[in-house]
Amino acid sequence: MEQAAGALANLAADEKYSMEVAVVGALGCISAVVNASIEATLANLTGPGDSNINNVMAGQEDGVIDVLILLIRSQHDAVRQEAAIAFWHLSNDARNRERIALHGGVEALVALAQLCVYTSPRLQERAVGALRGLSI
Question: Best exposed site among 47, 56, 78, 113 by fewest CB in 10 Å?
C-alpha cells in the first residue's frame, strides 16, 4: 500500500499527470491509507504549480479534508507541515474553504499553531498561513 501511495505522490507532483490522478478518483484510495506518503501526495496534488481546477477537485473529494485533519494531528512535524501546506493550497477556492471549516479544519489548524508556538516556528508559519488562506 505504501508503494502505491508513493507512486500516486510522484504522479500527482507531475503537472502532466496530476489532473488524471484527480479525475480517476485516486484520492478515494489515498484516504484509505494514512502514512507518510499520503501527505506528500496531497501536498503535491494541491501544489501551487497545479491548475486551480486540481485544487478544487482535491478539496471536493470525499475524505480528503478528514485525512488532512488526521495528518495535522500526527506526532511527526514533517507530516503536520505537509498537511498544513495542503490546507493552505486548498484554501484558494471558496468551496474548499467552506468544506474545511465544516469538517473542523480551522480548529485543527488553530490547535497546531498553538502547539508549536515555542517548538517549531516553521510549522507554526505553515499553520497560520493556512488559517490566513481560510480567512479570505
Answer: 78
* Buried/exposed code over 93-127 (b: 16+ C-beta within 10 A; e: otherwise): beebbebbeebebbebbeebbebbeeebeebbebb
Q: Could you write out the DSSP letters of every residue in 76-120?
A: -HHHHHHHHHHHHHHTTSHHHHHHHHHTTHHHHHHHHHHHTTTT-
The CA distance from 30 to 74, in Å, is: 16
Closest CA to 55 of 108, 135, 133: 133
- 51-80 pLDDT, tens digit per residue, is 554 554 556 666 788 888 888 988 888 888
CA distance 58 to 64: 7
Q: What are phi and psi of 116, to 5 degrees?
A: -105, 25
Tell me, what DSSP letter sits at residue 29? Answer: H
SS3 label, residue 47 = coil
**Model confidence, pTM:** 0.64
Question: Class for domain 2-134, per CATH?
Answer: mainly alpha
